[in-house]
Write a structure and sequence with these properties.
The complex is a heterodimer. By secondary structure, chain A is of the alpha+beta class. Chain A has a domain of about 70 residues: Arc Repressor Mutant, subunit A. Chain A is about 60% helix and about 15% strand. Chain A has a three-stranded antiparallel sheet with strand order 1-3-2. In chain A, a hairpin with a 2-residue loop joins strand 2 and strand 3. The radius of gyration of chain A is 19 Å and the shape is elongated. The N and C termini of chain A lie far apart (about 45 Å). The mean pLDDT of chain A is about 85. Chain B has an eight-stranded antiparallel sheet with strand order 1-2-8-7-6-5-4-3, with helices on one face. In chain B, helix 1 packs across helix 2. Chain B is globular and about 55 Å long. Classes of the chains: A alpha+beta, B alpha+beta. At the A-B interface, helix 1 and helix 6 of A face strand 1, strand 2, helix 1, helix 2 and helix 3 of B.
Chain lengths: ~110, ~150
């Protein structure tokens, strides 16, 4: 299964929104984050993995621990409701450009 | 990362401006709007009708994965080859109504071109609703994907 990891997939899930709110104020380890949720640790790990793949979270190694923190730049992109509209047109125009690069006039 | 497509949407206004630079000559860019087969490819739609002329009109149809047919149409007020297209656009069977589009095509260099798309909506509220559509769709699609995954797990 090839799920495209995008920010909307990330924020659509209530647990992941909870995780984002939690680490918004301070960087936390996976264990500390999991302690805040009534779900199994592997489930939280999976959520962290998705949030990291979408670049909403960043990992930082501190000694033996990995801390998770908010990627402010990416969060801003999500908060900006115009971005999906812009992306829709960008994708459409990218397609136009790709098609015209291979275009051979019929004659 | 450089953003090729720019959107200007000032708060409280019923219009917006989409600007995009293309790495292709002006004539090729315009061809992508003129030729029904090419329009069908990049817009991902069936082109039912495309009369590119002054007082012309067009109709597009797409079928979503659920099998529902969506129709888009408008009239072409002015068609000026390699320069501009002035037209209306409407998603049929939606509450958004018609919008007015001014498309201007210009050469930047012999090998690059620019499209300026000035879109005017009936009201500020309609414009803002349309701007939010892809945002809402993004979240809905994510929900659907999660539901799909959950169904497979049950």
């Amino acid at each position: 299964m090839n799920l495209r990891r995008d920010v909307f997939q990330a924020i659509a899930d209530p647990t992941r929104r909870g995780i984002l709110l939690l680490v918004a104020t301070q960087a936390m380890t996976a264990g500390a984050i999991a302690a805040n949720f009534g779900t199994a640790r592997p489930t939280v790990s999976k959520h962290l993995q998705i949030l990291t793949e979408c670049e909403l979270l960043e990992q930082e190694q501190n000694g033996r621990e990995i801390y998770y923190q908010i990627n402010a730049r990416k969060m801003k992109e999500v908060a900006d409701f115009l971005e999906p509209f812009r992306k829709m047109w960008d994708d459409r125009f990218d397609k136009l450009e790709a098609i015209m690069k291979n275009y051979k006039p019929k004659s | 990362m450089e953003r090729k497509t720019k959107i200007e949407a000032e708060a409280g206004r019923q219009e917006l401006m989409i600007t995009r630079d293309f790495e292709m000559p002006l004539e090729l860019l315009f061809r992508a709007y003129e030729d029904a087969d090419i329009v069908a490819q990049w817009m991902g739609t069936r082109v039912v009708k495309l009369d590119n002329e002054n007082h012309g009109s067009y109709r597009f149809e797409t079928t979503d994965p659920m099998g529902n047919i969506h129709r888009f149409s408008g009239v072409i007020h002015e068609f000026c080859k390699n320069e501009r297209i002035t037209r209306t656009f409407e998603m049929e069977q939606t509450p958004f109504g018609v919008q007015l589009e001014f498309l201007e095509f210009e050469a930047v260099t012999p090998q690059s071109s620019r499209l300026l798309m000035h879109v005017v909506y009936r009201s500020v509220a309609v414009r803002d609703q349309i701007l939010k559509l892809p945002f809402a769709q993004g979240i809905n699609m994510a929900h659907n994907r999660i539901e799909e995954v959950m169904r497979k797990l049950v």
